[in-house]
Amino acid sequence: MSEITKVILDAMGGDHSPGEMVLGAVNAVKEKEDLFIYIVGKENAITEALSQYTYPKEQIEIVPANDEITCHDAPVVAIKQKKESSMVVGLRMLKEGKADGFISAGNSGALLVGGQVIVGRMKGIERAPLAPIVPTINGVCLLIDCGANVDARASHLVQFAKMGSIYMEHVVGVKNPRVGLVNIGAEEEKGNALVKETFPLLKECHDINFIGSLEARDFPYGAADVAVTEAFVGNVMLKTTEGLASALIKKVKEGMTATPISTIGAAIVKPQLKKTLKTFDATEHGGAPLLGLNHLVVKIHGNATNKEVKNAIFQVETFKKQDINAKIREHLVENAE
Amino acid sequence: MSEITKVILDAMGGDHSPGEMVLGAVNAVKEKEDLFIYIVGKENAITEALSQYTYPKEQIEIVPANDEITCHDAPVVAIKQKKESSMVVGLRMLKEGKADGFISAGNSGALLVGGQVIVGRMKGIERAPLAPIVPTINGVCLLIDCGANVDARASHLVQFAKMGSIYMEHVVGVKNPRVGLVNIGAEEEKGNALVKETFPLLKECHDINFIGSLEARDFPYGAADVAVTEAFVGNVMLKTTEGLASALIKKVKEGMTATPISTIGAAIVKPQLKKTLKTFDATEHGGAPLLGLNHLVVKIHGNATNKEVKNAIFQVETFKKQDINAKIREHLVENAE
């Protein structure tokens, strides 16, 4: 039998917590027997949610935590003061090595702070980037960094490129991933001061497949497998993508159902359209890893449903089996020393 | 009779030059008699294109220019050396006050450089931002700056906010436009160093309707009328929006025509869908003004068709009639001195 992967799941903090969190865990353990999941949060609510399902009981354990970090909490204060919150309890367990990864749909800022402060960065890693998988027209792209590390330096971006490349290759399974530097033009001399400083450094990295500048226009067309940028720009790209995709799909639906006749057409078109647009569904790929920490922390969407939770659990399993942190250490840290 | 608006149109440099440029000019003068258009470029090609149409001949004049700046030219070198290019000839005419505005579909970088170097910034204006109108789900938003002014300072962003507000109110016709600062969170303490420095300065501007941080996720939903940001971020937002919109619409079409049955549904749905998505069509609003120069320079898309050209010509007319530069001088420059 293969080695057990242990996952800590924050049951609280999401829009559909704890219901969808619990269901995601149940579906995961029903599908794979080499998983063990700690569900952290309010005991009664979790017990009640679990009682609705039949599942292998020996694979799930409830860890009580009476407090909760909400989306209204200030990140640094919350991590410091809410010691009994599900997020802090879960992150502490992770730090103590009780599991291979921690998954949360809660307050993003608090999770980023908690990851750095409680779990801690790997020795030699300067910043821990948040790296969501963003759907493109023909696949996915890892957008690194979308986290809280604003005002990054060139050396940080180089580390992001290497970590992102390792993750895409070994967790997502893209061979020799194309790494692009987000820029406002294709030429090497284009860009702001940070990009101009980073470009030649990436050119010198022989352990990644650097393809040069990536124009934002080509990003949705899948022009790169890893898009490297500092967090402010990455966050704006991610949020523009999410906002526009939902706005446009809303608009398409409105247009299709504007008249009784078009509504008939819409009904005919719907199954195929849904199938095609499914490839634009980020939840298929689990959550966004916070890379470069001593242990894996995964941020899932605030409105995550059980499918995203289950995929994030499987993502922790792949991360562990591929021993990503050992690979990061080998390519980044030993080189750096 | 009202005063004549004079427009200089660069016939070269676009994907459909000079054909669509010429047709745009022809349609504009057929619609409005208080317009006069100089079409600058290769004389034979323009004459031939014009010969296909009937139009009031006294409203269009060809200005010969034998050279052309292409998309492959390096901006600064091109502006310096290609003195007989349509772009340089046109910008020089504008500088000499021969017209109210210059429109080009050519090399963006060269146009930005030429605008600053040949036409020149208004006294007191620190940077000249490029401010495209971006469609949103229920209207449009002016995204300022998307130009070449990377690594901007807070004082630049304050000027962008004021110029953008004046433009939206008096050219686009949005009353008391809501001005948002592009940010990665809603709170005042969020953001990078530039945003944190700019936020309190904008709060103190009593001549604009500052609504605080604008999250990129809300931008496609029309949460602001003017989105203020530095050029690198603005360019990434603009290009992500353009790229994703075209990618998604391509995907929707693919989905709708994937099977014979869905293709029938697609045919039924198409007229309404087209109508709805038309509101997402940027060409309805002319081009992107380069603000803060001594005279108006307008950048239209490289693949602009006659409709965009015509709308850009009308945009120059509104800019002139509303005396935007006098308003900018009044609100920005006199306050600054």
Model description:
The structure is a homodimer of 337-residue chains. By secondary structure, the first copy, chain A, is of the alpha/beta class. Chain A contains 11 helices and 11 strands. In chain A, strand 5 and strand 6 (139-144) form a beta hairpin. The radius of gyration of chain A is 20 Å and the shape is globular. The model of chain A has no long low-confidence stretch (mean pLDDT 92). The interface between A and B is large, with 62 and 62 residues.
The number of distinct β-strands of chain A equals: 11
Percent of residues of chain A in helical segments? 40-55%
The percentage of residues in β strands of chain A lies in 15-25%
Q: pLDDT under 50 segments of chain A (min length 5)?
A: none
Largest sheet of chain A: 6 strands, mixed
Q: Spell the H/E element sequence of chain A.
A: EHEHEHHEHEEHEHEEHHEEHH
Given the structure, what is the number of helices of chain A?
Answer: 11
> What is the radius of gyration of chain A computed over CA atoms, rounded to a whole number of angstroms?
20 Å
State the shape of chain A.
Answer: globular
Q: What do the pLDDT scores of chain A average to?
A: 92
Strand order of the largest sheet of chain A: 3-2-1-4-11-10
**First-to-last CA distance of chain A:** 38 Å
User: Most extensive interface, residues per chain?
Assistant: A-B, 62 and 62 residues
Q: What structural category arises from helix and sheet content of chain A? A: alpha/beta
Seen as an oligomer or otherwise, the chain set is homodimer
